[in-house]
């Protein structure tokens, strides 16, 4: 079971290639200036089973190369995220995860699901978001990073730091889904666009 805040079935703004992006609900880190404060509370969102998540991936068969898991905080639901990642792996998809915890903190966690999850991830973006040190957009900064203290860890051979798509411009996307306007992508750009939509 996984408590989910939002899913976007197809995006190019949350990792390499076309990906299904899933935001988990609940985060106790609660970084100041987080672009998703509505995802802090663990009692919101929708509870989804492994079968439901697998069916969602099946609907996107042939259209995506991987999944990206964001939040909220994915490692506060390690068992549920692990079930999603196993489902993705069974379908030949790559896995990217964003966490406010550092890799060292995660490796020190005692839960076996955390170790299994790290072993199944291709790309991990780690570290708390620091609003006082936002990551500049490429070419000066790195793609898909919120603040300068965060790191991209290449945990498998699926992607490499010299992959050209790791250095192209950040993007912001606007989706109309289930009667809601969803804005995702580069945090600074998405936040600015969200402010404009709230005013209009």
Gyration radius from CA atoms, angstroms: 16 Å
Counted beta strands: 9
- SSE order: EEEHEHEHHEEEEH
- Percentage of residues in DSSP E strands: 15-25%
The dominant shape is: globular
User: How widely separated are the two ends?
Assistant: 37 Å
The SS-based structural class is alpha/beta
Low-confidence runs: none
Share of helical residues: 10-25%
Number of helices: 5
What is the chains' assembly state?
single chain
Major sheet summary line? 7 strands, mixed
Task: Walk across the major sheet and give the strand order.
Answer: 3-1-2-4-5-6-7
What is the residue-averaged pLDDT? Answer: 89
Can you give a write-up of this model?
Helix 1 runs parallel beside helix 2 (78-90) and helix 2 runs parallel beside helix 4 (112-119). The chain is an alpha/beta fold and 200 residues long. Strands 3-1-2-4-5-6-7 form a seven-stranded mixed β-sheet. The chain has helices spanning 50-59, 78-90, 103-107, 112-119, 187-199, and strands at 2-11, 19-24, 46-48, 66-70, 94-98, 123-126, 151-154, 172-177, 180-185. The relative contact order is 0.16.
Topology at a glance:
Layout: E1 2-11, E2 19-24, E3 46-48, H1 50-59, E4 66-70, H2 78-90, E5 94-98, H3 103-107, H4 112-119, E6 123-126, E7 151-154, E8 172-177, E9 180-185, H5 187-199
Parallel strand pairs: 2-4, 4-5, 5-6
Antiparallel strand pairs: 1-2, 1-3, 6-7, 8-9
């Amino acid at each position: 079971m996984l408590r989910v805040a939002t899913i976007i079935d197809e995006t190019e703004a949350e990792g390499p290639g076309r990906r299904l992006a899933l935001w988990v609900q609940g985060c106790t880190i609660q970084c100041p200036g987080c672009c998703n404060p509505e995802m802090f509370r663990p009692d919101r969102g929708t509870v989804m089973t492994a079968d439901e998540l697998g069916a969602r991936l099946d609907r996107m068969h042939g259209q995506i190369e991987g999944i990206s898991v964001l939040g909220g905080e994915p490692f506060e639901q390690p068992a549920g995220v692990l079930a999603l990642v196993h489902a993705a792996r069974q379908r030949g998809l790559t896995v990217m995860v964003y966490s406010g915890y550092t890799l060292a903190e995660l490796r020190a966690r005692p839960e076996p699901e955390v170790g299994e999850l790290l072993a199944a991830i291709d790309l991990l973006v780690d570290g708390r978001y620091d609003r006082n040190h936002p990551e500049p957009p490429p070419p000066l900064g790195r793609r898909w990073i919120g603040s300068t203290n965060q790191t991209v860890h290449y945990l498998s051979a699926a992607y490499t730091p010299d992959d050209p798509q790791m250095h192209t411009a950040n993007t912001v996307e606007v989706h109309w889904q289930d009667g809601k306007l969803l804005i995702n992508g580069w945090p600074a750009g998405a936040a600015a666009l969200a402010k404009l939509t709230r005013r209009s």
